[in-house]
Amino acid sequence: MAENNNQPRVINKSGTLKMTDETAASRKQKDIGGRPFDRRNNRRRGQIKADVAPKEFDEVTINIDRVSRTVAGGRRMRFKALVAIGNHKNKIGVGVAKGNDVTSAVAKATSKAKKNMIEFSMNGETICHEVETKVTGADVLMKPAAPGTGIIAGGVVRSIIGLTGVKNLISKSLGSTNKVNIAYAVVEGLRAQVPRKDWETTKAKADKAEAKKATKKEAK
Prior knowledge:
With 220 residues, the chain is of the alpha+beta class. Among the domains are: 58-118, 2-Layer Sandwich (Double Stranded RNA Binding Domain), CATH 3.30.160; 120-196, 2-Layer Sandwich (Ribosomal Protein S5, domain 2), CATH 3.30.230.10. It is built from five helices and ten strands, in the order E-E-H-E-E-E-H-E-E-E-E-H-E-H-H. The protein has helices at 21-26, 102-115, 155-161, 179-191, 202-219; strands spanning 10-11, 17-18, 58-71, 74-86, 91-99, 118-119, 131-135, 138-144, 151-152, 169-173. The strands form three sheets. Strands 3-4-5-6 form a four-stranded antiparallel β-sheet, with helices on both faces. A four-stranded mixed β-sheet has the order 7-8-10-9, covered by helices on one side. The radius of gyration is 33 Å and the shape is elongated. The termini are far apart. Residues 44-53 have low confidence and may be disordered.
């Protein structure tokens, strides 16, 4: 008995039944797990772009030096990187590390900077008070400035302060020009900041001195 189909049956060379164009267009391809396969999302593994979350910290490579060490058989060349990271608020960190190439040195220095991060106090968009810090031969003086002054500082100090929320600052490097020591001196200066509410006035110091004297008299 003849079949009354609207379209004729098409048979492949192998003898199997071939789908019509309409049937093929209506079907969805599926992957090995049975999920519908979308050609538009069929990108290679290397081409898939993950959703990149906004970075909490920005990093700046302040300096890269090529260093050498004499070993048996010749000199061993390496790279030393100085990196600073900050969140443009009140967190900052500095790290120094060596590596066989620039990329590894920067990566190690960034990791160290994250581990050694500090949180410091601010007074609006400037530091709380004047401070002078010394690290080995480096001597850095930092002073608060009025709004609109900007950052008046040298290269290393400017790079580090630019990663914080400090917008107005006056700074002067008085000692060594070693960039690593200057960077650590800046960090120590920021660490030493004390909020205005915690300042010790002359009266408070006098009261402390009197309390110490009274304690000594009672002990005698």
